[in-house]
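Worked example 4.2. Below are the chains of a multi-component assembly; read each line carefully before continuing.
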Amino acid sequence: MLELRLVQGSLLKKVLESIKELVTDANFDCSSTGFSLQAMDSSHVALVALLLRSEGFEHYRCDHNLSMGMNINNMAKMLKFAKNDDIITIKTDDGSDTVTFMFESPTQDKISDFEMKLMDIDSEHLVIPEAEYDAIVRMPSAEFARICKDLSSIGDTVVISITREGVKFSTKGDIGSANIVCRQNTTVDDATVIEMNESVALQFALRYMNSFTKATPLSNTVTISLSNERPVVVEYKIAEMGYVRFYLAPKIEEDEPETSFV
Amino acid sequence: MLELRLVQGSLLKKVLESIKELVTDANFDCSSTGFSLQAMDSSHVALVALLLRSEGFEHYRCDHNLSMGMNINNMAKMLKFAKNDDIITIKTDDGSDTVTFMFESPTQDKISDFEMKLMDIDSEHLVIPEAEYDAIVRMPSAEFARICKDLSSIGDTVVISITREGVKFSTKGDIGSANIVCRQNTTVDDATVIEMNESVALQFALRYMNSFTKATPLSNTVTISLSNERPVVVEYKIAEMGYVRFYLAPKIEEDEPETSFV
Amino acid sequence: MLELRLVQGSLLKKVLESIKELVTDANFDCSSTGFSLQAMDSSHVALVALLLRSEGFEHYRCDHNLSMGMNINNMAKMLKFAKNDDIITIKTDDGSDTVTFMFESPTQDKISDFEMKLMDIDSEHLVIPEAEYDAIVRMPSAEFARICKDLSSIGDTVVISITREGVKFSTKGDIGSANIVCRQNTTVDDATVIEMNESVALQFALRYMNSFTKATPLSNTVTISLSNERPVVVEYKIAEMGYVRFYLAPKIEEDEPETSFV
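Applying the procedure described above to all three chains together yields the following structure tokens:
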């Protein structure tokens, strides 16, 4: 039996909104550690990893490890019913082929429940080694989202270059070229902060970067970790519970097709 | 001669917005009692009844009973010109084939008038007997609107079930099933209140329910009156003036076509 | 060399938004007087004239008179990157075929620059004689925008009639006719004020009037100058810097094609 009760229901809504553009169907894995997901986008270029630790739930009962295959869009549709201050409970019985979502208003005046069929989804679990990165930027997530959106109106790819002074985002397209520099600022909270061993400059598809920024409502800051010849990690922390991480392989040459992630 | 002056002009705008999705052309009937309308939707499944009592107008002159045929969309277009605090006057002369709407800003700095051609519309006036209902729910209109909208993303029909504890809205569709329960709460103003002789469970097309909720801006609460084998009445009261009521025949079997209202 | 630094960057964004619907490509002319533009719309019916005086810039260096041909849409796209409180610098070198826009955040934490190719655009500079007008209306720009938008839902042309009492906007269409009168009011700031030698009534295409109102964010008031047999001037003043003016030839007969401006 599985029963997870999350007081801050709005959080699960935001998680689904952040991944539904990238992922169609995925397995949610439940264990004593927490509620997690790992999935590739349909073109196998980007990878999403989600973790909501069990400690973050008001009530977390998971008798056996369990993998629940769900259509992310349908799940997002159901979660739209929940108001932001609703308490969300996810329930299923061992061997059942359905999952139930229950939403309770804080006053208990309104209680909704939704039953959804589970799916069988083939998936391979990648082990992503924790690694050192050449350079790590932490910056306001809204600023990063705006930069990706703005650059998309000019070009298709972004070069992210990190030096000790700051991070530079560059693109070019038919109408011209653009550079945006965010300078390191350690005097203000939640401003741009750089940690680096080595300067890096890597190129990525803006289309994926824009998808990742759908997670902006989850956190005020985003962390971008870069190393040469490794996928970038774009991470949004979920307060006291875990994270959503997006991995994307760099583009080697502008004219080449994107490298597949695996 | 007809001359009706309504200080709260925003009210007439909201009335038109509430019916224009359902009704294309309709006769507005003016008598000493008030300004009223009764019309069926084009598929003859739902009925709208509007009453604005003469006492609610600042000035109400109606020398003879009069029926003015109007295209509801065109009338709504003209009323969009009125700002929410404008005073609206409706005027026509006996035998004239046009009606004039006049909008005055509260400061009298801006005065607009619109002349619109009247139409000849065949219509039959149904006498709707006042009746006892098995169960009546009064609930926040915004909550009812949200429930109808949310359920539409899952199914096409809603079963409304009323018991002493509360009202339950249920639907099912390809992606799963949903139940929303609003519990009776007599301790808070404008919360859900149930009055019942007998428990009922009736099924309706969500498409029409969603149309009815266009009247939500007219009132903080909506009253839903249900009896077996009778059309449901969804009523929005218009403060001190009257009401907009929507009637809809229940669906007998899920797979059958909707019963016609008359 | 050209280097113009504008502290109130939002102003240039609004200017571009106000003209981009009407003008595709245009030459920006820089001289010691200021930064200006004159362009006709693609159908040669309306004319736009912009002036930003050199005194309004924080720094204004223009060694030689210069004409920079730009695609207005691309320029507007680049200016969208600037936040409203960004400082904008426009730079180019003598003989260069590119122009650079630089946006600095007030804290200097974020600096963006954009390089755009200049274009060769044939254009003829019209000398528009300063003239006396039969009647001039100054009215709230938001009110004028709303009137043009509202009337467009009924008809294609507007008759603007000015008398000592006020200004009347009239249209007719298939669904009826509409008149909106704004009365002169000299007791309130930014209300409607009439100056006239002679009453006028001229007819214009609403489509152009609606385009002109894209300049509404530039100023709280708009000035409309009318004379028989002369193009109307719709002017939005830009505080302490200059103006955007739109010129439109009146329609002579309702059924005739619009007169070309030149």
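Take a moment to check your reading of the output against the notes. The longest strand of chain A covers residues 46-53. Chain A touches chain C at residues 143, 150, 153-154, 175-183, 185, 191-192 (CB under 8 Å).
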